[in-house]
Automatic annotation (TrEMBL):
This is Putative HTH-type transcriptional regulator YahB. It comes from Achromobacter agilis. The gene is yahB. The lineage of its organism: Bacteria, Pseudomonadati, Pseudomonadota, Betaproteobacteria, Burkholderiales. The keyword DNA-binding applies. Keywords: DNA-binding, Transcription, Transcription regulation. Pfam families: HTH_1, LysR_substrate.
Length: 293
């Protein structure tokens, strides 16, 4: 078969317009050219697409089915052309990024919706993990960039850039003794088990002599919700769906918690692509706009 995409376009135009003359006007071609093109398509396919026994040609039953096939082929061809244009313009074909599991989901949701529209040809892979794991993904070559909470110097292998902040708070289960206090001091916190993030080489704030550690903010939030102890958590983790009704925020004027900075990491010497630079810039804008909780 030697049919062409142009013949398919003229066939679809004629079917949608209701006549060859209307399709010719829409396409800016002579009616005879459109009629001849569709006739050659029919001959090549060995299928009668239009019933020409009436004044205006109408689709045959076979033509109605073939119209759907033609429209799908044209859609795929358009996608192929758009993807080729994107790649020719220097956009990434594939991108793998690593994301700290504790990053604000509202920021990430907004970011990826915009990314899908701005870079429609991109094939994206997301690797999720703890702050330590996502840095490892970059060092191992599994991801080109990582986004995580800044909890100290990432080491000489990485270049990094500050993007924005997320607020923190002290949280306990509603039935925890601390939740019943109108005001909590450091001494009150010290009387109860503290749940702390565990990261190699990072000294987290510890106020209690009794400590449980985990490398996941979600694990810490779950333990706090179960009444195991109190924890300092990013607000977006404490306010996430499964935690929102299970955790109470504890007021403590004795303890001033800093904002938790968010950063991006990539290997020293690596050149960031247009897509990676856009993601960094847009995530920073969303964090500064307050989507980080």
């Amino acid at each position: 078969m030697q049919w062409t995409l142009d013949q398919l376009r003229q066939f679809v135009a004629a079917a949608q317009a209701g006549s060859f003359s209307a399709a010719a006007r829409r396409l800016g071609r002579a009616q005879s050219a459109v009629s001849t093109s569709v006739g050659l398509l029919e001959a090549d396919l060995g299928v009668e697409l239009f019933d020409r026994s009436r004044r205006n040609a109408t689709l045959t039953p076979a033509g109605e089915v073939m119209l759907q096939e033609a429209q799908e082929l044209l859609r795929q061809a358009g996608g192929l052309e758009q993807r080729a244009l994107s790649f020719a313009g220097g956009q990434d074909a594939r991108l793998s990024i690593a994301l700290d599991e504790a990053l604000p989901h509202l920021v990430l949701g907004a970011l990826f919706k915009e990314l899908a529209v701005r870079f429609p040809a991109l094939e994206l892979t997301q690797l999720n993990g703890t702050a330590t794991e996502v840095a490892d993904y970059v060092e191992q070559g599994r991801a080109s960039v990582a986004f995580n909470f800044d909890r100290g110097d990432p080491g000489p292998a990485f270049a990094h850039r500050y993007l924005g902040n997320v607020a923190q708070g002290i949280f306990v289960a509603w039935e925890h003794p601390l939740a019943a206090l109108s005001e909590v001091g450091r001494s009150d916190l010290a009387r109860h088990r503290q749940l702390v993030m565990q990261m190699d080489g990072v000294d987290e704030l510890v106020l209690s002599p009794t400590v449980w550690r985990a490398d996941s903010c979600y694990s810490i939030a779950a333990m706090a919700a179960d009444g195991v102890g109190w924890a300092i958590l990013p607000l977006n983790i404490a306010e996430y769906e499964g935690n929102r009704n299970a955790l109470a925020r504890v007021p403590c004027e004795d303890l001033s918690l800093p904002m938790l900075p968010v950063r991006t990491l990539w290997l020293q010497g690596a050149r960031l692509s247009e897509t990676e630079r856009w993601i960094q810039q847009r995530m920073g804008q969303l964090l500064r706009a307050g989507a980080g909780g």
